[in-house]
Design brief:
6 helices, alpha+beta, GIY-YIG endonuclease, 156 residues, 38% helix, 4-stranded antiparallel β-sheet
């Protein structure tokens, strides 16, 4: 491949992350989150709990044994994590899917992890999701809490 072609290919894989350590220091969740890590493959659906919770898509290359790298791409909440997992499996194939999500799910499918944490009854999934969004500011999330939205929009 020519240099120009390689540059264009690399540009197609560029994702901008906001690494704001003060937001990490300020993170507070009203409950302890016990995350479970799952490969993003259809066979894993049975292992995803059909309960309310929060989830994150992580991009993990897993190419250098012992050197773990995780990139939080997206954070969400659901009243049924198993159904939400299945919705994403369908989005990979759907022409009506959110374009940005569909592209990244397909582009990195062999490196994606679906991490989820169930929440006890009475705990708002939206409140926990907002706290996580404000701390991690994932690049694929369009909706961000007000306290970070304006700041992030100012330099994006």
């Amino acid at each position: 491949m020519e240099l120009e072609d390689l540059v264009e290919e690399a540009r197609a894989h560029r994702i901008t992350f906001t690494l704001w350590s003060r937001r990490w220091d300020d993170f507070k969740a009203s409950v302890t989150l016990n995350w479970k890590d799952h490969p993003f493959v259809p066979e894993e659906k049975i292992n995803i709990p059909p309960t309310p919770g929060v989830y994150a898509f992580l991009l993990q290359p897993r190419i250098a044994n012992g050197l773990e790298a995780s990139y939080v791409l997206y954070i969400g909440e659901s009243s049924n994590l198993q159904e939400r997992f299945d919705n994403y499996l369908q989005e990979i194939k759907s022409k009506n899917a959110r374009p940005r999500i569909r592209v990244y799910l397909n582009q990195y499918k062999s490196f994606l992890r679906f991490c989820c944490a169930t929440l006890p009854s009475g705990v708002s999934t939206t409140t926990i999701e907002d706290a996580l969004l404000a701390a991690f500011i994932p690049p694929l999330n369009v909706k961000l809490p007000a306290e970070v939205r304006a700041v992030v929009a100012a330099f994006v």
